[in-house]
Amino acid sequence: MPKGGGKKDDMKKDVSWNWIAMQLSNGSELTAYDLIDLKTGEDCGSFVIWIDEKGKRHYSQKFSLKPIGTSWTSTRTFNEYPTMWELDAPEFGLRVKAEAAFPNQEFATVISKPAFWEGRMNISGKQKGKTITGHAYIERHGFVNSNNMKEFLKAVSKATLQSVHHILPLALTQEKFEELVSKKGNKHFTQGLDKQAYVDKLIKPIREITDRGGKSWRSYATIACCDAVGGDSQIAIDWLALPELMHVGSLMVDDVQDKSVVRRGGPSAHTVHGDAIAINSGTAAYFIGQYCIYNVDKSFEEKVEIYNCYFEAMRASHSGQAMDIYGLDYMMPQALLDDKVAKQLPVRVIATHRLKSAAPASYLARIGVLLGTGTKEQQNAMGEYFEALGISFQIIDDTLNLKGFKDHLKTKAEDITAGKITYPIAKAMSMLNKKDRARLWQIVSMKTNDIALLTEAVALLDKYKVIELCEREAKSILERAWKKVDPLLRDSMVKLNLRAFSWFVLERTY
Description:
CATH superfamily of the largest domain: Farnesyl Diphosphate Synthase
CATH architecture of the largest domain: Orthogonal Bundle
Oligomer: single chain
Structural class: alpha+beta
CATH topology of the largest domain: Farnesyl Diphosphate Synthase
Shape: elongated
Radius of gyration: 28 Å
Strand content: 15-25%
Mean pLDDT: 89
């Protein structure tokens, strides 16, 4: 299709656009746009109009309007927007650079994909060899990083990695070296220290795991809760790193404890660096996140409250890890014979999930509300919501492992092969008759990968509709928590994303 043209079929295209209007210091004005089909990259029309200093219009289709250099990421939508552009209109002898007056000029809306960037620009460049300046307005519409929750979380993960790289770079300046070892300006503790050895044996093991990327929903909790109560998470974008470092630290230590050899699609830290380095680096990751708290623009009292939340989360998660390592095998001899003991199994699994996975998410949400200067009521409700989210997330994880086996997916009931008493297994033990209970435990305790035995175990769960019941419980837990938080939050794009995330956790298939 020729530039500047138009077809009826264009109405069916997924069209996005860039548009700029500028007033120049020589008294002339210009406006330009280009339309692009996002699916095909096809040019759907473009035009530039220059009104010279005498008021005469000049038209052309020969120009380029393209982003250059820097970009800005929104912590509300995690869309990435260019903040510097170049416009070249050779027929008018014009070549200028447009730079955003300030980056945060996004408009978030549920009716426009779901956000666009429209803001003021400063112009500099030349026209016909003469220096020229001016002011402009630019709109970038339709170029979004995500159209569904899965893509949205990928965008969150990308922004989280950028935050981690900022806090934990592999190439250290002297200032960053001091900051990571102790604090900025404290040269004493870096004297005589081999910087490269420090990077190789402390920083690299952490970065190797973080750089593979994760779901990053814990990072989103802190940022989203700040915005949801009316705060500005943009000024706290590096807080994305704190939950990720906390989580990765726990994964590195967990893998040593569990003797796991794979993490996030690559070798676990201890298989590459040895147990001692992995434990030390994983533990250090817990404290590197202190950078965020140390530098946040909050009062002493508010910082103390944030510190308390962080370390309460750490104590809770380590308590949960202790229970997870110990497991529930010790209860099984009695549980096979005593219905009352068997009914305690699901309660114990939930208690471990609450401590190990839900409590960190809950406290991170509370920190987000503190950053956003929310009320105590909002802090409690958001904490309870993300606690429920953490528990529901783990229950769904447990059920997906079994559903993957049933649906002939890659997952082959590894939890049963590992002999784990997950929530569905615990729930089944509380429901099955003593004969079926004994047989299920016999198979689980074998730690078998025999397909016939795994099929038999899953069939026992299906006999009592255990998987479906667990899914309903996860939904009920989360819905109750949402009903508490819903009236305490004003309607916004962030609130909508939080609600959508609830559904994503419950309906996901991986």
